[in-house]
Amino acid sequence: MNQDDYIGRTLRIQGAYTKMTYDFGAGRHTVNYVYRNGPGCCGSDGAMCGFEFINSQAVPLKENDWIEVTGTLRTYEDKGITF
Q1: Segment 31-49, tens digit of pLDDT
Q2: What b/e string do you get for 57-67 counting C-beta neighbours within 10 Å, with b at 16 or more?
Q3: CA 74, CA 50: separation in Å to the nearest integer?
Q4: pLDDT: which is higher, 19 or 24
Q5: How far apart are CA 19 and CA 62, in angstroms?
Q6: Which DSSP string corresponds to 30-61?
């Protein structure tokens, strides 16, 4: 809700790794994602919260590896969608 407060700032997050694929009707979009599960709208229903990232070190990652990512938060556009 307040992403503009963080765009351009350097952030660090630890969490689990996964690949996420979005399909918004404009084509598929697959990204690396670091996340944590947190409380959702109904208590502990496991809502994911995290960030996409670029693996600039080309380190091979496996699903659910615990990782730490440091980087500058930014938005970008792909197939007409802002991420």
Answers
A1: 899 998 877 666 666 677 8
A2: eeeeeeeeeeb
A3: 14
A4: 19
A5: 9
A6: EEEEEEEEEEETTEEEEEEEEEEE--TT----
